[in-house]
Amino acid sequence: xxxxxxxxxxxxxxxxxxxxxxxxxxxxxxxxxxxxxxxxxxxxxxxxxxxxxxxxxxxxxxxxxxxxxxxxxxxxxxxxxxxxxxxxxxxxxxxxxxxxxxxxxxxxxxxxxxxxxxxxxxxxxxxxxxxxxxxxxxxxxxxxxxxxxxxxxxxxxxxxxxxxxxxxxxxxxxxxxxxxxxxxxxxxxxxxxxxxxxxxxxxxxxxxxxxxxxxxxxxxxxxxxxxxxxxxxxxxxxxxxxxxxxxxxxxxxxxxxxx
Length: 259
Ligand SMILES: Nc1ncnc2c1ncn2[C@@H]1O[C@H](COP(=O)(O)OP(=O)(O)O)[C@@H](O)[C@H]1O
Ligand SMILES: [Mg+2]
Fold this sequence. Notes:
This protein is α/β, with parallel strands linked by helices. The chain has one domain: 3-Layer(aba) Sandwich (Rossmann fold). 38% of the residues lie in helices and 23% in strands. The protein contains eleven helices and ten strands. A six-stranded mixed beta sheet has the order 6-7-8-3-9-10, sandwiched between helices. A hairpin with a 2-residue loop joins strand 1 (2-11) and strand 2 (14-24). Helix 5 (124-136) crosses helix 6 (152-165) and helix 6 packs parallel to helix 7 (182-197). It is globular, with a radius of gyration of 18 Å. Bound molecules: adenosine-5'-diphosphate (ADP) and magnesium ion.
């Protein structure tokens, strides 16, 4: 479904992504992990279209997309949930999910949020789709509550439901577990596991090996912009190069500073 070939992206002298190839078959939950500064976020942005590669190609369902804008990629079926929460104040969880029905860029989201009272509220089809997405994400009990009143873990689930509301073929997740408490992480992990069991194709970018081990089919490990390992969670956890890369940046920020 998603094929990256020899992608390169640099910032000044730093090759943040340095010849990365990666292939995600349909129905797989692929995790992309690595220490801080490994190039995960840069690679993520290359896939979403917020950055363009200097070299290399990105194919989605056999179609070259590396020159397409994010909205055009979204229309092909690539959905994104961002690292930071973007929910609209004063709107219920359900309404926040409705916004995802037919808009993908941040600009479109904001526009749709303003249109919402006028058009969306009376739009039974969109409401129906949003209800289905809410149910898929296990959020029925909170559908009519103000989204911003809910705990962070639930807000993340609402974001995922919003992405699901557009019926994506590929869901891109950027550190969805960041900042969550233990029980919230478990719930998120269960939701991702359930979507994986439904055979939704996902690319999950995450720092934490532990979190991805529970849900990922395959894991790709980046360090210094390159793929250093690939395999099942158990395989990459046993890989010495992976252990070294993570130990080398045990404090997190030390790694980025050293580069
Ligand atoms: N916008 C940018 N400008 C300059 N350097 C950047 C920028 N984004 C990332 N980098 C550099 O690229 C490298 C990879 O960063 P990043 O993709 O954010 O890694 P990760 O998400 O794995 O922590 C780092 O050395 C970082 O400092
Ligand atoms: Mg990052």
